[in-house]
Design goal:
about 210 residues, alpha/beta, six-stranded parallel β-sheet, 10 helices, about 50% helix
Length: about 210
């Protein structure tokens, strides 16, 4: 793992947490310019990056992640942010990228949730903080392609965006996995995602959700 975080206390906490969970921390960065060289040098199994880093405290961590993924397309990236920033989430997930996550920093304090999210990102999944998903839902525009979805289909898509599998979605909504499968099929149909795109329809549905 490579970690980029300017807050020394949180940075050291992440190092201890990841090491205690059996991960090797190859390098840490405290500023934006450090990130890309470290990622290219170590080619880690995953990067855990703060969005805002010195010197500008704007989007240095995100830009470093995007630059690294141009050279290392399969690099899993878990981005941490203090606030819900819609543009960052959409840009990170743009282009159908796999192995990406966006969590609010307070999620790190929920150790099991954080480590589970990291594992899913490393495995190629897409993980979004529930608060990010809620914020994105509240910003939908008129003419949104998601407008045709029923409330239940929107709930299923929201949980898909958080990175949950069908069994977890079924448990969360107290419905059967068969019903989840049916709702997901309806989502694909209404979003115009063809059956021939089976391997990527889930990711593309999440991207359509974010872009809306």
């Amino acid at each position: 793992m490579v970690i980029a975080e300017d807050n020394a206390l949180l940075r050291e906490g992440l190092v201890l947490l990841l090491r205690s969970a059996g991960h090797e921390v190859a390098a840490v960065a405290a500023t934006g310019p450090e990130v890309l060289p470290l990622l290219l040098a170590h080619r880690p199994d995953a990067a855990v990056l703060d969005v805002r880093l010195p010197p500008g405290f704007r989007d240095e961590g995100l830009r470093a992640a995007l630059a690294a993924r141009e050279r290392l397309p399969d690099l899993p990236v878990l981005v941490l942010s203090q606030y819900v920033e819609q543009t960052y989430a959409a840009e990170l997930l743009g282009g159908g990228a796999r192995g990406v996550g966006y969590l609010l920093k307070d999620r790190v304090g929920r150790v099991d949730d954080f480590l589970d999210a990291l594992d899913r990102v490393v495995a190629g999944g897409t993980v979004l903080d529930p608060e990010v998903v809620t914020e994105l839902m509240s910003r939908q525009r008129r003419g949104d392609p998601l407008a045709a979805l029923t409330p239940r289909e929107r709930e299923v898509l929201r949980l898909m965006a958080e990175g949950h599998d069908n069994a977890t979605i079924a448990a969360a909504l107290v419905i059967t996995e068969r019903s989840v499968h049916k709702h997901i099929g309806n989502v694909f149909l209404k979003l115009g995602l063809p059956p021939t795109d089976t391997g990527h329809r889930r990711v593309r549905a999440v991207l359509a959700y974010l872009n809306a």
